[in-house]
Amino acid sequence: MFKIRKAKEEEPTASGQVKIKKRSRVPGVMITQYVEELPEGMSTPDFTRKPIALTIQEGKLAIFRAVITGNPTPTVTWVRNSGELNEENNKIVFDSIAGEYQLQMPDVSADQADTYKCFARNEYGKAVVTAALNIIEVGFKKSRAMQESRTGTQVDIEVKEDKKTEIDNKFWEVLMSAEKKDYEAICAQYGVTDFRGMLKKLSERKLEREKEQEKVVERICNLKPIELKADGGAEFELEMSLKDPKSKIFIFKDGIMIPFEVDTEVKHGLKQVGKKFVFSINGVDPDDAGLYQVEVDGIKIFSTDFKLPPVEFLVKINDVKAEEREDAVFDCVLSQPMKKIKWMGKNNTLEQGEKYDITVSEDMLIHSLVVKDCLLLDKGIYAAVTGLNSCNAWLVVEADNDPNASRKKKARKTTRAGGGGAELLKIAEEQQANIQMEREKLIAKARADKEAADKEAADAAAAADAVAAADDCDGVWYKDEKEITATEDICIVKDGTYRKLIIKNCKEDDAGKYRCEADGRKTEAALSVEDPPRINPDDLAEFKEPVIIKTGKDAAFEISFVGREPMKIQWYHEGEELFKDTHVRIEKSSSHSRLVLTKCQRKLTGEIKIRIKNECGTTEAITQLVVLDKPTPPLGPVDIIEASSSGIDFKWRTPKDNGGSPITDYILERQQIGRNSWKKLGKIGPEPKYRDRDVDHGRKYCYHIRAETDQVKKNVTMFFLLFHNSAYPGAPSTPKIVSAFKDCINLAWSAPTNTGGTKLLGYNVEKRKNGSNLWGHVNPPNEPIKEKNYAVTDVVEGLEYEFRVSAINISGAGEPSSPSVFVFARDPKMRPQFTDKKMKNFMVMKAGNSARPSISCCWQASPIPTIKWLKDSVPVAKHVTVHNTDTSTQLMIPTAERHDTGIYMIIVKNLVGQVTASIEIRVTDEPKPPGPVELKENVSGTVTVSWAPSPDEKKDDRLHYVITKRDSEMLSWQTVADHVFNNKCTVVNIMPGRQYNFRVYTRNDMGLSKPSESTTWEVKRRKETFSLNHPATKNCCFETPPSFSVPLKMHKIPESYECNMSCAVTGNPKPHVTWYRNNISLNTNTNYYITNTCGVCSMVILKVGPKDSGDYTVIAENPLGRMECSTKLVVKGKNTHSNAVVTS
To answer: What range(s) does the Ig-like domain occupy (predicted)?
Structure first.
């Protein structure tokens, strides 16, 4: 549910509601909870993805998207800070596929620029988040606004407002991870003009960030911002050394954590090679743009802003008019390759599936959307979206108005409407060529720069070759219009028609313009000698040796070099350039430079680098500065491994900074609490742990721990450690309430982890009433509880108690545990239930006896329930006696009669619920036998036994009869019928020549009555003659009209494929089969191969073409009738696999 509301609309808080502020995992989301405790399964609204700020050109479509959770489903509203939302122009929709709530503002204008809020409410709370919309004005409006800003007073107001605007935190995150050369571009992007203030604040933020990073990272370097790759992906990398290899690394995008895997083939991947971490994004989408941050254990390490190059539509999608059941195609061409763009249809995101076909060309420039099998419902606006840019077009579906096809299902058409065709491919090829040309230019430029940088300039030999017109002519060489003669370093060589000038060990003075003249002809060439800065290898090796000094001393670095002047010399400390200062002196000359750092402190330890640069190249030299100082104090907290009567075993953490030298020893002193003297324990070695065995049981001690190094022995560091060597046991766990009753409360707890070094003797349990400050012992002090559970019986019903437990060892009772939760001394409320699983549900009793059905088990109910007995849903009669207790009930009928028969139900009910049980009581008497038995033969081979009813038949509805028989061959009685409820029964299988006797019994719930016997029954055996009558014969006719047992099937076949149609026909006489295409007979057409084998009719078309499309009919007829079967053949476009065969 969602609606549009006015801005700044407040809802009053209902009586009984509260307002609890909560934090969301998504930054910028404010949550207010209306209840103190949420019911199970319910939750307040929250944003899992908040709407982001938009900067969009005037006249475009602006969409705010948000993903909201909450149970029950929240109501979503959108408001703006100033003004009201126009319900007619602005659309609020819910995308069920993506689960997004969207605010769509088509054709935005400058007056819609504002801050928008999204509210999500349900009965348990609300959540709110804001997002800004910035509009870029274009055309006449922009020019007019610029003119007004030059002449009007509005400029001053805007400048004042800009000064008050705070710099976005994203600016600092990007700046701290960028190189200095990019500072100016980043400041221009975010509109920062105060460079001096920016640099000052940046250095402060960097110091704060470095202090935080020191907790988890030892070193960070080679930070490379995110870049877009040629394959459509993106990646950034950095090198860092983690202090703890198990530290967790998190990646955030715009403040939202994104999942990643080690595999680089997934959407987001993080690959580690040594200390190098590479984060990759495969298949970059417009939604992937944003600020990416790397965090280690919650501390920010690296930030980089990912911006996609603007993607424009070279060819936009056009309106498509399609017929019903036809496919529609939308095509567009992009200016930059993209693996995927977003397609929208009637404000819904479209995905690949049965209805839509989304394709991308190999060069990723042409994107197509195919709407399959267009129906009238598919009519609407379809859009292609690439980040901030989009284009849309109409799809118009024309209905098929053929009156003949109105009652039939319309067949799907094979034609397509829309599409760009060859012109679209031509535009895409031209754009691909332009992109490839730009890419090759960048590659060529990078290669040229690399070749120029790697070119060796020292000890080069320059040779100038010239070809003379004849072998015997001499060549004359000139340098800067002066003739050159051969010397030790200059050689003039004549080799056939070639004239060579070789200059050995080129120097800077050899640079100039050289000319060769021979036989009246001349040629010229220029020689350029490069002289980049160079450092002698021996001097470089000496410079790389680390400089180790003590704190407060001076450190000097010097190095000699040669190269062409002028040269720029720069000194760096940990990547930051050094300038002349109070503690920094820099000396420079044409061949020498010296750096002096005075009064060095420990924090200056790090990398020192000199960079020398001239027009020919750059060289660097790196060394290390180590400033020795006393180590910092050992780190706590101290972990006490064991504190018992036999000794104290504890450990601590090494100092955060060892002062530049490894720890050689720890020196310990101990003081017993209550005394003034300290006892020296001496040096214990470099391990940060110690076991003190010389202790007294039950005493308290304080320790001094000092760290010592090789370089600093006098100025040691002292660390004070105070703890108790107590022999008393620690506190047990908080007591747990196992169960509570009105006269007993059961407790349970766990033993303490610290037993004081001795065996536990037991526990003391204390109780305290709610509202009282006094604790009272539950068990006698001299009788400790041996087990870790106890039943407290000294309680008063209705009062509230809390309990605590203390452990006891040989030294006495230790610290008590934390108090338990308060609990009332009362029986727990419980729904009644029966515990007797063998309760009877049926009872038969003889009239005149007394009935005592009872339930004697304990009630599982609290509070005590009420008991009610019913007979056939009405209260029992007065002569029935009921006896009830707290846990059982008993019902008694003193002298039962037949009218006491019925269903008796007991209802046990209390405040929590009720339970019922039923028992059926049947009061009856021993049955009386039936009357005289008569025998009669109605059908040969059977005998009908009838008898007079028993006198009890009307009194007992469960009374029935049992019939038995005995014949002269088998002398035993056999039951022939049971559960007979009338007075007649027919007995079958009566054999002639045998004598039969029958007995009839009456049976009820008490048992059988005495029998009533019949007379002897006998059927005389008769001999009959055998005769056989033959039935008259009939003539059979097997003739049937034609019918299709297997009909024809519809075919969709590419052009030039082979098609095989077949069906099965039955009929007698054999039907004559004729094939038709569009009502034209094909039986005489030689282009079709037609066969009829045993009723299987087949037709083969070797290579189908467009002319073969149409309706095909098979007609089978014989003298008894005529039958036809039809199908449709659709021929698609030509396919390359021409050898495929398609059959039905």
So the answer is: 45-134, 477-528, 832-924, 1042-1130
Most confident of 190-194, 332-336, 613-617, 983-987: 983-987
- What's the one-letter identity of residue 38? L
Mapping DSSP onto H, E and C, the string for 169-209 reads HHHHHHHHCCCHHHHHHHHHHHCCCCHHHHHHHHHHHHHHH
Phi then psi for residue 541, to 5 deg, are -65, -40
Residue 813 clears pLDDT 80, i.e. is over it: yes
Phi-psi label, residue 634: left if phi above 0, alpha if psi -120 to 50, beta otherwise:
beta
Q: How far apart are CA 1099 and CA 1062, in angstroms?
A: 6
Of the candidates 74, 293, 46, 346, which has an alpha carbon nearest to the alpha carbon of residue 172?
A: 293
The predicted-structure confidence for 50-74, as pLDDT tens digits, reads as follows 898 888 888 888 899 999 999 999 9
3-state helix, strand, coil in the chain (%, to 5): 10, 45, 45
CB atoms inside a 10 Å sphere around CB 883: 11
Rounded Cα–Cα distance for residues 608 and 572 (Å): 6
φ, ψ at 173 (rounded to 5°) = -60, -45
The DSSP letter of residue 1137 is -
Which helix (H) or strand (E) is 451 found in, with range?
helix 422-454
Q: What is the value of pTM for the model shown?
A: 0.30
pLDDT in tens, 319-331: 888 888 889 999 9
pLDDT at 44: 92
Residue 199 amino acid letter: L
Kindly report the average pLDDT of the chain as a whole number: 81
Q: CB neighbours (10 Å) of residue 743? A: 13
List of E strands, 678-799: 679-683, 689-692, 701-709, 717-723, 736-740, 745-748, 762-769, 776-777, 789-792
Query: To which H or E segment does residue 449 belong?
Result: helix 422-454
Provide the token pair at 9: 């609309």
Report which of 542, 543, 705, 580 is spatially closest to residue 634, judged by C-alpha positions.
705
Q: Look at residues 659, 667, 665, 666 and name the one whose alpha carbon lies nearest to residue 711.
A: 659
- The answer for 459, left when phi > 0, alpha when psi is -120 to 50, beta otherwise, is left
**Angle subtended at Cα 991 by Cα 987 and Cα 995, rounded to the nearest 5 degrees:** 85
Distance CA 485, CA 131 (A): 81
> What is the C-alpha separation between 755 and 712, in angstroms, rounded?
42
For 722-731, how does the pLDDT look when each residue is reduced to its tens digit (9 = 90+)? 455 556 788 9
**Contacts of the segment 863-867: beta carbons below 8 A, 24+ positions apart:** 863/827, 863/829, 863/910, 863/911, 864/910, 865/832, 865/908, 865/909, 865/910, 865/914, 866/908, 866/909, 866/910, 867/906, 867/907, 867/908
Q: Which two tokens stand for residue 767?
A: 């109780």
Q: What is the pLDDT of residue 785?
A: 93
* Residues in Cβ contact with 182 at an 8 Å cutoff, skipping those fewer than 6 apart: none
Which amino acid is residue 887, in one-letter code? Answer: T
